[in-house]
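hey m, so remember when u said the C-alpha cells were messed up on ur end? i reran from scratch. heres the input so u can diff it against urs
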Amino acid sequence: MNPSFVTSSISRDAGGLYFAMTNLAKNLHQADLQLEIYGLRDKHSTEDAQAWHPVPCHGLVAKGPSSLGYSPQLTKALLGGHHDLLHSHGIWQWPSAAVHSWHRKTRKPYLISPHGMLDPWALANSRWKKWIAATWYEKRHLRDAACIHALSQSEADSIRAYGLKNPICIIPNGVDLIDTETLKAEKLKSEKKTLLFLGRIHPKKGLLNAIKAWKQVLRSTLDEWQFVIAGWDQGGHEAEIKQLCRDLNLVYDETTAATFLSANCKPQTANSQIVFVGPAFGQEKDALLKSASAFILPSFSEGLPMSILEAWSYRLPVLMTDHCNLPEGFTNNAAIRIDTDTESIVKGLHQLLQSEIYDLESISQNGRKLVEHQFSWSQVSSQMKEVYEWLLGGGTKPDCVHF
C-alpha cells in the first residue's frame, strides 16, 4: 500500500494533531506501509521536519491568509504522486479541497480524520468562516470520503449529528510509554507540588475558568502547590489569561521551560501563584511531566487529547471534563471529573488537594494501566492499517468500522 497523509500543518503549530500524526506515521512505516506526508510550510516546519523521520515529508508553500491554507502546489504534488489512498487530517482549510480534487481526477478513495473539528463547540467557534468553507469545498470533501475516522464514540455521534452518512471507523489516539522504573528514578523533586496544564493556549481549553477556580482555592494551596501553564499561544489568548490574573490580583511569573526546570521548578518570583513557562517540547516537555504532581484539562472541546494520554503514561492524577471524550478515565477511576464552569473546577481541585496520598497513587496507577491496555500506538496503527486494506478492497470490514 502507498497511503499518504495530507494536512494543513506539518509542525508543532498543529498542536496535539502534530504529535498524533507523527506517531501514527512512524508506526505505520514500521508496519511496511510506503507512507508519505504532504502539508503546508510554516515557521516551525523546518525545525520539526526531523520528527517525521524516516517517513518522507513534503512541505508546500501556501499563499494568502494562513487561516485558509491555500496552496496550488499541494494539489499538483498530490496529482503527481503515486498514492493508493489519501488520509486527510483536519478539516476547514484548503488541503480538504486539494484532496477532493485528487479524488475526482483519480477516482481513488480517501479517509478523513476531523480530530474533533465537527464537535458542537468547534462548529460554533468561527461559525461564519466554517459556513463559507463548507459551502466552498468542505461539504463535498466530507460527503465523498470513503470513511471518516472518529477518535471516540462521542466524536462519531457528532459526525452523525452533522448529517454525514459515511462509514465511520472508531480508533483512538495512542501514546508512547516511558518505562515505569525509569520514570520513578528520574522523577524530579521541587519545593512545591505542580498542577500542570500543557498544550495549546486557546479559548476552548477552558483556562480562564481554571484561573478563576485557582483563585478560590489559593488559601489552601499557596504554600504547597503552584499552577504551571506550559504551551504556545494562539490568537493572543495568553494575553487574555494574564489580564485575568491581574484583575484577580494573582501574582504570576513569566519564564521559559528551560529556566524553570534548571531552577528545580521554582519560579523566579517567590510568591508567584501561577507560572507561565511557554512552549515545551522534547526533553523539556518530558521533564515538566516528570516534575508534575497532577494534570488538568478543563476543555470545552477535544477530539481525543494527546495530553491526557501522556499524563496517564507519566502516572499523573488527571482532572478533565467529559468533553475530553475519554469516559474510560472515569469508569476506571483514572481521572477526577470536572465540568467547564468555575464552580465545578473548584470542587475538582478541592478533591485533588484533599485526597489522601494513596488515593492519588491509585488514580495514577489506573491511568497508567489504561493507556497500556487500550492506547498503545501498536494497537492504533494495526487498526488503521486494517481500515486502509478494507478501503482498497483487501479484506473484510474491520470491527472498528460502523455504518
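this time it looks ok to me. The mean pLDDT is 92. if urs says something different then somethings off w ur setup not the seq
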